[in-house]
Write a structure and sequence with these properties.
The complex is a heterodimer of chains A (109) and B (159). Helices cover 0% and strands 51% of the residues of chain A. With 109 residues, chain A is mainly beta. Chain A has a single domain, classed as Immunoglobulins (Immunoglobulin-like, Sandwich), CATH 2.60.40.10. In chain A, the strands form 2 sheets. Chain A has a 5-stranded mixed sheet, with no helix packed on it. Chain B has 159 residues and is α+β, with helices and mostly antiparallel strands. Chain B is built from 1 helix and 9 strands; from the N terminus they run αβββββββββ. Chain B has a single domain, classed as Immunoglobulin-like. The longest helix of chain B has 50 residues. In chain B, the strands form 2 sheets. In chain B, strands 1, 3, 5, 6, 8 and 9 form a 6-stranded mixed sheet that branches. In chain B, strands 2-4-7 form a 3-stranded antiparallel sheet, with no helix packed on it. The chains are: A mainly beta (109), B alpha+beta (159). At the A-B interface, strand 5 and strand 6 of A face strand 6 and strand 7 of B.
């Protein structure tokens, strides 16, 4: 598979107790399993990211299960309540078992 | 003689047209009717499984989708559920279904009180004009549902 790139965007600084948005983007074909080979007519097997998990300073705060209907190069945004400065760890798992990770720092004032 | 022939030809053509149109119409109605019902059936079944016999309530959910999606391959969806998001009262999960897709399940979002707000956005594939359904499961077990129709100009499921 072509190299998978993940990006995450969070505000530079957040006040304690503030709810902030996390925007994520990952390059992935998200082969739905519905498409057919143009020549053979056979269905192209499904190969998608099926799970997303976000942990905040080690604690799971949000997760998402995906199916074939999630678009290619999936964008996902969600929210987190600011507690302490630290890191947000994002992990995407696809059908092959591969896990793609991205970490970002969060500064809480 | 000629005028008689013409009469017969016209009338035969008419008969054929009317009967074939009639057959098509009857078949068309039942065909589309059964496909439409089957589409909804899968979603209705999935939702009732989630509800597990509990009453499905309306309200609390704001489901944002474009009225018309130019490209069915990437339709932006945003969902928010009104909730205090405290340990005692929060939104556990929100499940998204596309009634008319070959596979209705789209995504599930699992929140925690640490989320602060039960809001998430994603981009989805819609095969054709259809209803998108959001089902919210609360921490107290209650179930809420919201539905929005999206018109799709070019379908996005590989076709």
């Amino acid at each position: 598979m072509a190299k998978v790139k993940a990006r995450v965007k969070v505000p530079k600084k957040v006040a304690k107790g503030e709810i902030f948005e996390v925007k994520s983007l990952i390059s992935h074909k998200m082969e739905s399993g519905q498409r057919k080979h143009k020549k053979t007519g056979e269905k192209i097997p499904r190969q998608i990211i099926n799970k997303f998990v976000c942990t905040y300073n080690g604690k799971a705060v949000f997760s998402s299960d995906w199916h074939g209907a999630v678009s290619a190069n999936p964008y996902l945004s969600f929210h987190v309540k600011a507690v302490d400065s630290g890191s947000l760890d994002l992990a995407w798992t696809d059908d092959s078992g591969a896990v793609y990770k991205k970490t970002t720092k969060i500064t809480v004032t | 003689m000629q005028s008689q022939k013409n009469k017969i030809q016209v009338s035969r053509r008419d008969v054929l047209n009317y009967t074939s149109a009639g057959i098509l119409a009857a078949a068309g109605i039942s065909l589309f009717g059964s496909i439409a019902k089957a589409d909804k059936k899968m979603t209705v079944h999935a939702v009732s499984k989630l509800a597990g016999g509990k009453e499905i309530m309306s309200g609390k959910i704001t489901l944002e989708l474009p009225q018309i999606a130019e490209n069915g391959n990437t339709v932006p969806l945003s969902v928010e559920v009104d909730s205090p998001m405290t340990d005692a009262d929060y939104v556990k999960s929100v499940h998204i279904f596309a009634e008319g897709n070959p596979e209705p399940s789209v995504a599930s979002f699992h929140f925690t009180p640490a989320s602060g707000v039960a809001k998430a956005s994603v981009r989805m594939r819609l095969a054709k004009t259809q209803n998108v359904v959001a089902v919210a499961e609360m921490s107290n077990g209650s179930i809420f549902q919201a539905t929005t129709e999206v018109k799709v100009t070019i379908g996005g499921c590989g076709g």
